[in-house]
Amino acid sequence: MSTWTPIKLRLRGSDAEIFDGETDFAGGGAGAQAVYTGNSVNIANGASGDLTFDTLALGPALLDISTPDAPTFLTAGVYAVALNASGDALTAAGYATLGLAATGGFAFTADTEHPEDTWATSLGVCVVAAGDPLLAVVNNFDGAAARNFAISACSVVKL
After folding, report:
1. Alpha-carbon span 137 to 80, nearest angstrom
2. How high is the pLDDT of residue 151?
């Protein structure tokens, strides 16, 4: 079973570091980092859906994305995950939530934004076994229609 701890993203110039307030995870000995992107997924109004991890855009493979809507970690370890998603503009009263889930439980949900088309980043540090899933979940509360959502960038760092 995976264990999640909320963390923060600290920016230094053009470099981003994952930071929990005490431990500098991105210091000199940082491990492998992979960045994934995804194709659009249409999610009905009032429904939730899993975003897809379709492309390894940068770095070594840390996830098995052969099933894009249910990727799994290739090796056991401690990982930091940062997720950004984009989507269609929502109605003025509508909103969407973005979250990460592992091994069947929701870990946390990002801030909601109203008719924006880019959603806040979800961050977490997790301890996983090889084969544990990583899911990116969007809840569409547009109030009017189905909308398209996609992973803009999901950074996975093995610590």
Report:
1. 17
2. 93
pLDDT of 118 strictly over 80: no
Query: Please, is 55 exposed, middle or buried when counting C-beta atoms within 10 Å of its C-beta (0-12, 13-18, 19+)?
Result: middle
Q: What pTM was estimated for this model as a whole?
A: 0.76
CA dihedral sign, ordered 72, 24, 11, 89: positive
- Where are the domains positioned within the chain? 3-158
Identify which of 1, 3, 26 has the alpha carbon closest to the alpha carbon of residue 157.
26
User: CATH class for domain 3-158?
Assistant: mainly beta
Q: Structure tokens of 146? A: 């189905």
Judge contact between 24 and 123, C-beta under 8 A. Answer: no
Measured distance CA(98)–CA(118) in Å, rounded: 10
Cα angle for residues 1, 24, 105 (degrees, 5° grid): 20
Rounded Cα–Cα distance for residues 114 and 117 (Å): 9
Rounded CA separation 143/86 (Å): 18
Instruction: Classify strands 72-73 and 48-50 as parallel, antiparallel or unpaired.
Output: unpaired
For residue range 12-31, what is the model confidence (pLDDT) as tens digits? 433 444 444 444 444 323 58
